[in-house]
Each structure stands twice: as C-alpha cells, then as structure tokens.
Amino acid sequence: MILIFLLIGMGLPAFAAKPDGLADPQTRPELYRLKNPVARVQELLKAQGRYEGAIDGFMGSDLERAIRLYQKEQGLPQTGKISGELIAHLENVGRIRALITRLEDVRRQRREKARQALLSDPRTRKLLEQKDHKTADPTRDMSHCFAQPTSGCLLKAAVEASKAVYEDDMRDWALGEILAAQVAVGQEEDALKTAARIKDSRLIIAALTNIAKTHAREGKIEEALSSLDLIPVIERRLSVLLEIAKAYRTENRKRDLKRIVENILATAAGLESFEEGLSLQIEAAELLGDVESKRALKLLDAMSERARTKALNGSKVTLMRQAAGAIAKIGYPEWALKVLEKMPDDETRIPVLMAAARAFLKAQRFNAARQTIERISAKRYRSVILADMAGHMWRAGEHQDALNVLEKAFVIAKGVKLPFARNFSLSNIAQTLMKIAENSQDSVHAVRAYAILQDISDDRLKARGLWDLAHATNRNHLSVAGTDLDAVAQMAVGAIKSKFSRVWVLGDLVEYYQTENEPERAKHAFELGLATVEELKNPWARSRALAKFAALAYRFD
Fold first, then answer.
1. What does the radius of gyration of the chain's CA atoms come to, in whole angstroms?
2. Which has fewest Cβ within 10 Å: 436, 452, 463, 537?
3. What is the pLDDT of residues 499-513, one digit of tens each?
4. Burial, 39: exposed, middle or buried (Cβ in 10 Å; 0-12, 13-18, 19+)?
C-alpha cells in the first residue's frame, strides 16, 4: 500500500502495464498521471449515471459494484478494480458519448431549421400540418395487382405496405422511393400526399427535391423548373438545377446549358458554406466542359487552388480530388495529374488516377494510360481499370495486347483479399470478355467469361453476369459448350439468398433490357421479379420493391 501512494505521489501509475483497451498510455499519458485515479473513475462513472456516491477518492463497495457492472457491459474482465485499461476505456467511452450527443444536437437543429423553412411558405406548410396517421389494413387483398400489374395498382400496393412500417426512419426511406416512382409515372398529387406522410422535415425537403429531379431526368424540364419554387433550401435548388443542366446536355441545348451553369456558378459562390458552394461549382464547371472545354478547365483549375488554400482541412483533399477528377473527365488528364501532385500521396489519389487513366483510354493514348495505371497502388482498382483498358485496346484493333492486358487484370484480381472487391474485379473482366466475344463473334471469349463468372462467390454479381452473358450469346448466336445459359442465369437468380436482393437484381435487369430495346427479355425478368415481390413479407422491403416495379411497369405502357 505504501508503494502505491509513493507511486501516485511521484506522478507515476501504480498500474503500469500497457492496457489493451481503447486508449494507449503512450499516446494518452495524462490518463496515467492522475493525482487520484479513484476519484477520476468516480467522476467518469458518475457522468454516465452508473455511480451515485461521493467523489472522495476512496474505494468503496458501491464503486466496486459500479466498476463490475461497467466491465460486464463493455466486455472487460470483471475485476471490480481500477486499472489503466479501465480509465482509458472510460475516458474514450465518455468522449464517444459526448460526440453522439453533439451529433444529435446538430441533427435536432437541422430538423428544426428544415421545419421552419417549410413553415415559411404556405404551399409547403400543409405538408407539415396535414399529417395522416394511416395504419395498414391487414384484410386488404392486393393479389389482383400481381395478376394484372399496372403502375397505378402496384403503387397503391406499395403505399399500403408502407403503412405497416412502424420505424420512422425506415418508413420515410420507403416513402421517399414511393414518391419518386409516383412522380415518374405522373402521379404528382399522390406524390405530394406521400411527402406529407414523411415525419422528418429534412426528408420532406429531400422529397420535394426528388420530385423536381425526377422531372428533370424524365426530360420534363418545365415541370422541374416550376417545382423549384417549392424547395425552401437554396443548396437543394442548386442540386435540381444541376440535373436540369444534365438534361440540357443530353438534348444538346448548349445555350440553355451555359445559361443555367452561369446561374449555378454565381449562386453557389454566395452560399454560407464555402465548401458546399465550391463542390456545386465544380459540378457545374464539369458540365460546362461539353460546350466550352477551355473555359471549364480554367474554372476548375482555379477551383482546385481555392480548395487547397481556403477549404477547411477536413474538406480540402475531397474538393481537390473532385476538381482534379472533373478536369480529367472533360479531357485534360495531364492537367489533372498536375493537380494531383498537390495532394497527399495516399489512396485519396486513386479516384483522380482512375479518371485520368480513363481519359487517356478514351483518347487511345495507351502508353500514358498504362503509366497512370501503374501509379494505382490498390489491386482492386488497378484490376478494374486494366479491364477497361483491354476493352479500349480491342476496339482500337490491338487484339493480342488487349488479351495480354486482360490476363494481367485477371491475375491481379485473383490476388485481391477482400471478397466483394475481388468479385467485383472478376465481374468487370467477364464483362470485357463478353464485349470482345460480341465484337469478334468468337465463342472462345464467351467460354472464358463463363468460367470467370463461375469463380465469383457473390450471388448477386454472379447472377447479373450470367444474365448479361446469356443475352450477349443469344444476340450474337454464340454458344458456351452446349450450355443453356438462359436456364443457368435463371437458376443463379433463384440462388440469391435474399429475396429482396433477388428482386433488385431482376429490376435492374428489366431496366437494362428496356433501355436495350429487348422487350421480351425485359418482360421475362419483370415477371420473375414480380413473383418474388409477392413473396416478400417484410413491409419495408415490399413497399420499396413494389415502388420500383411500378415505375418499370409504367415503361412497358
């Protein structure tokens, strides 16, 4: 006991063994030089509501019980004694609790700010005031919607399913997707009713934003512009203007594109948050690259410098990376690499290197692309971009070099440790082989793609790849050793363990085949997907899946 008090008096810990908790005495020495560790533990446990006694620096039975309870809850050895590990753990947990409290305060403030923004306009005030508290009707039979699916009926079924989702966050998530589907099929009034059911005011604003964005993506630009006035948050309005600018780009309306980009650049410059404003400006300048590439380059270069010199440390690299990536995408990869040199030499550089490599590939500058790819340290990314490179080289007529590059990508992919990353890399290689098979009309490459897909352990990626391969071989009259790829692909989809994941994969396939003008294959995937939707019991999953398939059904009409 005398030794303990001598050690404390010298400012050294009586429990000098290195703890294995959250903190390390080498990096947090102040935790281990306390004048009275017992009093500190009493303070920390009292702050958490676990100890109600006096903070007197003496070890008593109440304190020992509180320590044991804490140790049990945190999975620590239940000694009931004070140690360096215990103090470090308590300190760190206290900090985490304080952080969570601050985050909750920020969330409450933002929710209230969003609520006040909605209340300030009579047109949006009713979204808060006319809350309905509908409950699900378990007796309602929606089987007719599956027998004769229409977008309207499926959306009604989705709304009905959402009433049985009782967690606010989950229900709001589902309602947001129902709302987007309602807008896509032209049910704007129903969409506003759906928005009124969303409890979180911020999500109501997000819903209004999604209505306007959906209009823009569907090419309904006038509707999107008229919806802007309902959105009370300027940053959200600017995000809608970006979608409208993308629509103008798709329609090759250069004058309108330039006009709206100028609007975004000027308005974003005046935002309260410099970082958020700069990010929006970078997006706008990238869109300008399609019509005025040199001016866009000048703007983006200046923006990258502003990010470097003015942005907060937490946002500096992110914004520089965004600007450099945009510079590469508008066709100036060398310039993007110059910006890259001003960034830390770590994995934050990878997105810029990928964007620069793709720009070199687009210009068929394969040596420059190869040199850029060699700078990508992570195997999973290097494998993916090498597969892209092989595809570009094949289209350029460099067939043997393309196959050599693809084999290199395969070897690298096999060495990726993370399962999903490895599967994703292999999937990209198989997709490149499918394109080569279609271009060359040679089944050898389809056979190779099939073998690689069989090596993928992720059931969703495997199923999607097999469906794509079946489509490619059927369209080009290729064969894979007499294998019925349609049957294999269908079995792979059925093997997806999660029914909800199965529905989502089939929904994505429907959308793909609709875009590719393959109505029969789209219809087949739709029927399989809808049959699985009917089997879903979880109301959250069911409502989201029904909304997705309602939008897909509308596209068949």
1. 29
2. 537
3. 999 999 999 999 999
4. middle
